[in-house]
Amino acid sequence: MTLLLDQAASVVDRWRRRREDADTAVTRCEADELLRVDLTVNGRPATVHVAPRVTLADALRDHLGLTGTHLGCEHGVCGLCTVMVDGDAARSCLILACQVDGSEVVTVEGMGTPTDLHPLQESFGAHHALQCGFCTPGQIMSAYDLLSSEPGIEAAELPDRLSGVLCRCTGYRNIVDAVADVADRYPQGVPGPRNCGHAEPRLPRATLGGAGTPATLEAAEAASGPAEIAVPSGEPTAVVTVDTHAEAPIDAIWEIIEDTEALATCLPGAEIIADFGDDQYKGRMRVSLGPVRLAFLGDVKILERDDATHRVKVIGQAADASSGDVAAVVDLTAESRRDGGTDLRAVAELHMVGRIAQFGRGLVNDVSTDMFHQFAANIDAASRGEAPVEAAPASALSIVFTLIRSRIKALVRRITGRN
Amino acid sequence: MKAAPFSYVRPTSPEGVLAELSLAEGEAKIIAGGQSLMPVLAMRLGRPPTLVDISRVPAWQSIDVGTHEVRIGAAVRQRAVERHRDLRVPLLSRALPWIGHREIRSRGTVCGSLAHADPASELPAVMVTLGARLGITGPGGDRELPADEFFRGAMTTALEPGEVLRHVTVPRARRGQGFGFAEMARRHGDFALVGITTMVQTEGDRVVRALLGAFGVADRPRLLDVTETVAEPLRAAEEDGASAAVAEALADAARDLVTTGGDKHASAGYRRRLVRVLGGRELVAAFRDSRKGESR
Ligand SMILES: Cc1cc2nc3c(=O)[nH]c(=O)nc-3n(C[C@H](O)[C@H](O)[C@H](O)COP(=O)(O)OP(=O)(O)OC[C@H]3O[C@@H](n4cnc5c(N)ncnc54)[C@H](O)[C@@H]3O)c2cc1C
Ligand code: FES
Ligand code: FES
Questions:
Q1: pTM of the entire predicted model
Q2: Hey, what CATH topology would domain B177-290 get?
C-alpha cells in the first residue's frame, strides 16, 4: 500500500511542477522530433512520445493501443473519434496529441469492463443500438457527455443533441432509445465511468513511442531508470493457471528460476536490457510469427522470492506500440516430484488494455497452456546446460488463427517470461 | 487523412506568441481550438511549417464580466461561454448552441471563430449586431476595431500577418433591448444556409432602434438598421401577434442583404425569402423581448 501511496504522491508532484512553470515555459518541437506528452488516460498516467502532427486519436490508438476510439473521416465530420477531454466530449481527430499534455482523457475503454458495463453500454446492447458497431464508441462518449452535463434532458431533444456522431448503419432510432432509457433511469445524472478513477493506477503507465523509432525510445526507456510498478487493482481481465512438469530435479530448476537473466533466455525473443538492481529490470520481448511483429518493452519486478517453498512472484508491465498494454502478476511455484522431476505451476493474473484485450479468456487460456509448456521445456533444457529450443510457430492452424494466437503468445510469453 | 509535418510551439505569454509569430516571418499559423484549422491540415489544404498554440496563454484564458461589457479572451472555448451563467449577452447565448455540435464547441474558441471569419458562421454576425470591439495585438502594439470593420470578406479579416486577436469585448444587454436569433441549415450542426440576428430597442411602446443582421448571405456578416421600415409593422404585430406584415416590409432589406449567388443548397431567391420570413419573426420576437420590463 505504501508503494502505491508513494507513487500517487510522486504523480501529484510531477503535476505540481508542471503547473508551476506553466507561466514561463515555452514548449517546442520540430516537425521531425518527438515531444514527450504526459496525460491521464482512463484515470491513470500515460506518456507518449509523438511528432507534432500526431492527433490525439492516433496517439490513443497507435501509441497506447486503445483502439476502442474509432476513426471515420479524420477531419471532424463524423464524430466517431469522440472522447472526453478534461470533462467535455471532443473529437480526438481534431486535437493534436501535443495539445493535451496534462489533460485527462476518458475513452470508451474507461467506461466499463466486459463484466461491469457502464449503463450506457448496457443500454446500447439492450436496445440493439449497434449494428456494425463502428460508430458505437463515439455514440457512447457523446451520450455520456450529454447526460452528465445536462441531466434530465427531454427525450424530444435527443436527436438534435446526439447529432454530432453519425451512424453509417443509420440505426438512429435505437441509439436515441438507448440513450433516452438511460436518461430516464438517471434523472440526476448518469453514473461516471466504471473503469477509471481508481486512486491508484489500475494498469501500468504505458511508455512508448511510435512504431518508427523503437531504438531511440528503447534507449531512452532504459536510461529513464526503473519505472514505478504497482500491483494493478481491480478485476483482472483473465486469470490463467497452468501446470506442467520438467524432468530436471528441483534444485537445478530453481537455479534457473532464481536467475532472472537465465530465465529470460528460456523465452524466445526475450531479453533483459537493463538491470536496475533491487530485482527490477527493463526487458524487451520481440515476437515474430508469420506476418506479425510485436515488440514489447516493459518493466519487471520480482515481488517475492522464497527459496524454502520454491516460489517466485513477479509483476510485469509492458506495452506494444500497436496492440496494447499488459500487466501481469505471476505466481510461479516449483515442487519436487516423486520421479525426481519437478512440477511447475503458474498462476497469472492478466490485466490487459488495447487490442490485446479483445481476445477472449478461453483463447488466452488455451494458448497460455501451450506457451507455458514450451517455457518449461526450455527451463528444463537450460538446467541441463543446453540451449533453449526455439518455439515453433503453429503450423496446422489457419492464418487467421495464427494471427490471433501469436498475439496471445506474445502476451503470455511476456508474462511467463518474467518468471 | 494525416496532416503534413509541421513544427509546434506553445508559448505561455502574449509576448511569447508574438515573438514566435515574428520568428516564423508570416509562415506560422496560430492554432487555438483547432476546430477549423485541423480539418484544413488533415485535407492538406494548408501546410503551414509551424503552428503556434495560443491555448495555454493564461492572460487570454478568462471571461471578464464587467458592468456593461463582457471580455472574452483568445483562448476561451465556446462551451465555456455557453456554460457561463452570468453573461447577460442573450444574443451570444442564443447563437452558441448553433455552432456545430457540443463536441466542436468543447474545443473551438470564440475568437478563433471570429479570426476564421467563415461567412456562414454565427459569431461574426453576433458581434457585428452587438457592436462588439475586437482587441488585436501585434508587432506594432495593441489596437481595437469595431466588429463591422474587422470582417473584410470571406475568411478575410483586418488582421495583419503577425497579429493576434487577443480578445473580444461584447456589450451586455441593457433595459429596453430585446434580441432574436434564427437559423436555417440542412441539419443541426451544419453551417447556416441563412442565419438571422435581430436587436430591437424600445422606450415604452416606441421602437427607437431595430437592427436586422444576416449571415450566410454574403461574403461577410451583414447588418441593416431597419428602424424606419419596421417600427410601424412591429407595433401592429404586437396586437395581432403575426409577423407577416413585418416580413412583408423587409422585401427591400432582403434584396439588399443577400448578395451571394445561389448554390446547390439554396438559391439566392430562397435565401431572400428566408431573410424576410425569419427576419420578420425574429424582429417581432426581439420587440416582445425588449418589452419584458426588466433587463436580463
Ligand atoms: C463539424 C464541424 C462543424 C462546425 N460547424 C460550425 C458552425 O455551424 N458554425 C461555426 O461558426 N463554426 C462551425 N465550425 C467551426 C468552429 O466553430 C471552429 O471552432 C471555429 O470556427 C474556429 O475556432 P478554433 O478556436 O477552433 O480556431 P482554429 O481552428 O484553431 O483556428 C481557425 C483559424 O483562425 C486562426 N486563429 C485562431 N485564433 C486566432 C486568434 N486569436 N488570432 C488570430 N488568428 C486566430 C487560425 O490561425 C486559423 O487560421 C465547425 C467545425 C466543425 C469541425
Ligand atoms: S474521425 Fe474524428 S470526426 Fe470523423
Ligand atoms: S452501428 Fe454501424 S455505423 Fe453505427
A1: 0.75
A2: Enolase-like; domain 1 (3.30.390)
